[in-house]
Amino acid sequence: MTDPWVALEPGADPVARAELLRRAHDTFTEAGTVGRPVRAVVADSWRRSARAGVGPDGTASVELMDGELGAYRAEHPLARVMPLFRELMGTFAADGRHLLAVCDAQGRLLWVEGDPATRRQAGRMNFVPGARWAETAVGTNAPGTAVAVDRPVQVFSAEHFSRRAQPWTCAAAPVHDPRTGKLLGAVDITGGDGLAHPHSLGFVQAVARAAESQLALLTAEQPAEDTAELTALGHDEARLFAGGRKVRLSRRHSEILVLLARHPEGLTGDELLCALYESEAVTPVTLRAELARLRGFLGPGLLASRPYRLTVPVESDVDAVERRLETGAITAAVAAYTGPLLPGSMAPAVVRLRRRLADGLRAALIARSDPDLLADWAHAPWGEEDLDVWRALAAVRPTAAVRARLSALEAELAAPARPSGR
Fold first, then answer.
1. pTM
2. Helix, strand or coil, per DSSP, at residue 185
């Protein structure tokens, strides 16, 4: 096969291939070994699914319902290109008795449209809006795997990890923010064996690229000076998009921008000095020099003084997480949280904000007790040693892997600290 992301090469017998895959799937679920004819992308996905504790007989859970689903969809960036998706794929899906599906970057289905009879069939396995089809929830599937590996992918028959999904074939391609490159989600076509063809994968790839082009045009139509966007979660160096420019900031400049974005009324030099530096030995002259460099870097007109403030409204990813937490939209808050705020920063005010944001999310996750949301946090780099979350996860998903990890964490906590020696 020339393209490893395509499920069947032209001329292959889908019935014979499906039978071979079912046997390989049974072997993997029983013995943990993968053999031919399983493609490498599928074998890797099966292993990730197993490590996440996914069972082959499980099904997707519905996380977003009613008002929360509607609110989340309304503010999701892919809502702006849903008319394009429907125009390019709607007729194809309806005429071929397929489904058009769009998921977010966490594998949650936001829209599922197409042939009514096919929708009813898919509904029996919870392939419905609001359901979680991430690899960590239901294993290998095209939309979930496409966002996991950030590549277009096709999944055929028993390549699906969940047995309930094995009668289906799907192809999905990721969609990115054209300005930042951030993964927004994926567009998917799901149906029968007729989709097990290279053309269906090429089709969704073309649709995804068209969506990115449309998003770029829509963004260009907006007045660039109206607002600025600050991305500071999960990175030591923040990104600022303002005035039609995308700027990567140094660590110190990132800290300053985060603090000024939190205080649109402005901060005095003394207030910034206390917020940024642990040492009282740092002088106002040092801070003024740093601010002068930042002003030159940003360009004229964006950073004012007396007090120091930004001259345009700033929308940050921190604001997005906090806003969703305040309204009780926990799933949406977790989706917006891409990691700790400036994780390497030791600036006192940034450290306090970082802890407050993470603690608020953790408390909400533990209170919600949703196994998939807890698993996402526990398996993320910032949650690997989060004992409280692992305990909450073990209470609602007591798999052998979860219990083993919890036991290891508790043993580490109980172990006496080793004395330092020379």
1. 0.65
2. strand
Cα 302 from chain centroid (whole Å): 31
C-alpha–C-alpha distance, residues 370 and 140, integer Å? 21
Top-confidence residue, 1 or 63 = 63
Q: At what angle do helices 40-51 and 14-31 cross, to 10 degrees?
A: 30
Please provide residue 126's backbone torsions phi and psi, each rounded to the nearest 5 degrees.
65, 30
SS3 string of 284-340?
HHHHHHHHHHHHHHHCCCCEECCCEEECCCEEEHHHHHHHHHHCCCHHHHHHHCCCC
Per residue in 31-67, pLDDT (tens digit) is: 888 877 899 999 999 999 998 889 999 899 998 887 7
Specify whether the CB–CB gap between 384 and 51 falls below 8 A: no
Q: Compute CA distances 98 → 115, 124, 176, 186, 220, whole Å.
A: 6, 15, 24, 16, 34
Rg, the chain, Cα only: 24
Catalogue all structural domains in the chain, each as residue range(s) with its CATH number.
Answer: 14-220 (3.30.450.40), 228-315 (1.10.10.10), 318-410 (no CATH)
| Type of residue numbered 138 | V
CB 236 within 8 A of CB 251: yes
Q: What is the dihedral of CA 404, 410, 414, 418, to 10 degrees?
A: 70
Cα distance between residue 267 and residue 275, in whole Å:
10
